[in-house]
């Protein structure tokens, strides 16, 4: 008696569509958290040194987390991308802010050095032996540059072309959103400048115009929010030798204009000797 051959035992494997479960997204989460913290701290002087370290660590975590997520073995693709972007952006911000702060510190140090070089101790001298002809002359008042005459202000040769003491109507016509002068009267000045520096000049930001009122108060163009027909903030970037003409405005009480003075100085300067006075009218 014969028996039919038995079928070989079948092995049961995972169905064709089976995929092993993805592992966690710990690297991606850590990279994202470090990137966000580094980006928030990257603007703060001194502290942004630590932000750079956090960004580097986060970048080192974000890259493998992104590679794992692309292979499908781990989750957190979006968080890995966020970590990569924020860490790179934080490093860029750190480098930019460090360069800016270094320039500001160098400029302040140069101004302090110039001020220190200008201070000299007077030599002791016997009053009885002093020659009357050696007496220093009385210091003359600050020189005022006339209208249309150029003068050197920082890295610019600046000429005052025109002054409109009551520019309320001109300012109102320049832009429909300009509000009336808070102090009562707009003073508008027109300057022509030539950049004499060696790099790039931004005259609308590099220079500041100030009206010194007879009420012993200063009224700066930075306090005037009105948009002018040829506004200083629209002045182009100048290469060495480049020139432009633009306008500043100051918001001044009318009563403070009698006997007022106009000055122009570099915006980032703490040296009063860099200030140049122009004839106001």
List the helices and strands and how they pair.
Elements: H1 26-41, H2 47-71, H3 77-117, E1 144-145, E2 150-153, E3 156-164, H4 168-174, E4 185-195, H5 203-206, E5 207-212, E6 218-220, E7 243-252, E8 261-266, E9 276-278
Parallel strand pairs: 1-9
Antiparallel strand pairs: 2-3, 3-4, 4-7, 5-6, 5-8, 8-9
Helix pairs in contact: 1-2, 1-3, 2-3
Protein name: DUF4190 domain-containing protein
Transmembrane segments: 25-44, 50-67, 79-101
Keywords: Membrane, Signal, Transmembrane, Transmembrane helix
Can you tag this structure with a few keywords?
DUF4190 domain-containing protein; 281 residues; alpha+beta; 5-stranded mixed β-sheet; Immunoglobulin-like; 5 helices; 4-stranded antiparallel β-sheet; single chain; Immunoprotect_excell_Ig-like
Protein architecture, described:
It is a single chain. By secondary structure, the protein is an alpha+beta fold. The protein has two domains: 26-113, no CATH class; 145-278, Sandwich (Immunoglobulin-like), CATH 2.60.40.1240. It contains five helices and nine strands. The protein has helices spanning 26-41, 47-71, 77-117, 168-174, 203-206; strands at 144-145, 150-153, 156-164, 185-195, 207-212, 218-220, 243-252, 261-266, 276-278. It is elongated.
């Amino acid at each position: 008696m014969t028996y039919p051959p038995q079928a070989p035992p079948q092995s049961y494997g995972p169905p064709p569509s089976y995929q092993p479960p993805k592992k966690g997204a710990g690297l991606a989460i850590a990279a994202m958290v470090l990137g966000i913290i580094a980006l928030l701290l990257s603007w703060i002087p001194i502290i942004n040194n630590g932000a750079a370290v956090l960004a580097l660590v986060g970048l080192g975590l974000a890259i493998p987390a992104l590679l794992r997520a692309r292979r499908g073995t781990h989750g957190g693709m979006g968080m890995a991308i966020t970590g990569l972007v924020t860490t790179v952006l934080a490093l860029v911000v750190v480098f930019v802010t460090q360069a800016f702060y270094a320039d500001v510190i160098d400029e302040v140090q140069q101004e302090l050095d110039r001020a220190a070089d200008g201070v000299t101790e007077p030599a002791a001298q016997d009053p009885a032996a002093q020659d009357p002809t050696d007496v220093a002359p009385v210091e003359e008042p600050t020189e005022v540059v006339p209208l249309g005459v150029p003068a050197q202000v920082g890295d610019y040769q600046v000429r005052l072309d025109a002054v409109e003491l009551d520019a309320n109507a001109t300012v109102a016509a320049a832009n429909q959103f300009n509000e009336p002068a808070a102090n009562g009267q707009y003073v508008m000045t027109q300057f022509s400048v030539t950049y004499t520096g060696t790099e790039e000049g931004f005259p609308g930001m590099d220079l500041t115009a100030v009206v010194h009122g007879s009420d012993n108060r200063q009224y700066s163009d930075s306090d005037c929010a009105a948009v002018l027909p040829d506004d200083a903030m629209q002045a182009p970037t100048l290469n060495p030798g480049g020139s432009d003409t633009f306008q500043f405005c100051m918001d001044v009480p009318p009563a403070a204009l009698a006997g007022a003075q106009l000055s122009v100085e570099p915006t980032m300067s703490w040296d009063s000797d860099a200030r140049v006075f122009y004839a106001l009218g």
